[in-house]
Task: inverse folding
């Protein structure tokens, strides 16, 4: 009898613990979502050339990283910022987001 009581109590406490932990909210504050800019499909080399041109005209140093990724770096008032640009034939994604660079790229892509 005593063994059954301890077993039942353990089961109930374990169930309560797992139920309480699974219902707690983790919050949305730290969630990072991708911000893709979609456009009409064009050849990858043309997208690449337009992104490089837009970045260089806006004062960014563009560095090749992969076939479909670039690293853009810019120094303002002694502060250097770097942005990774991931692109394909129909989208561009900047990580971390930089609105000035994104606007320059969108203008070159005709958006």
Result:
């Amino acid at each position: 009898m005593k063994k059954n009581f301890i077993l039942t109590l353990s089961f109930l406490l374990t169930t309560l613990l797992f139920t309480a932990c699974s219902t707690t909210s983790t919050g949305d504050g730290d969630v990072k979502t991708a911000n893709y800019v979609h456009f009409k499909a064009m050849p990858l080399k043309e997208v690449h050339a337009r992104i490089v041109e837009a970045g260089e005209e806006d004062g960014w140093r563009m560095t090749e990283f992969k076939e479909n990724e670039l690293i853009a770096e810019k120094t303002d008032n002694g502060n250097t910022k770097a942005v990774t640009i991931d692109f394909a034939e129909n989208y561009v994604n900047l990580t971390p987001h930089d609105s000035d660079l994104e606007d320059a790229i969108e203008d070159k892509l005709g958006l």
User: Anything to note?
Assistant: Residues 36-109 form a domain with the TATA-Binding Protein fold (CATH 3.30.310.80). Residues 2-23 form the longest helix (22 residues). The radius of gyration is 25 Å. Confidence is low (pLDDT under 50) at residues 27-32.
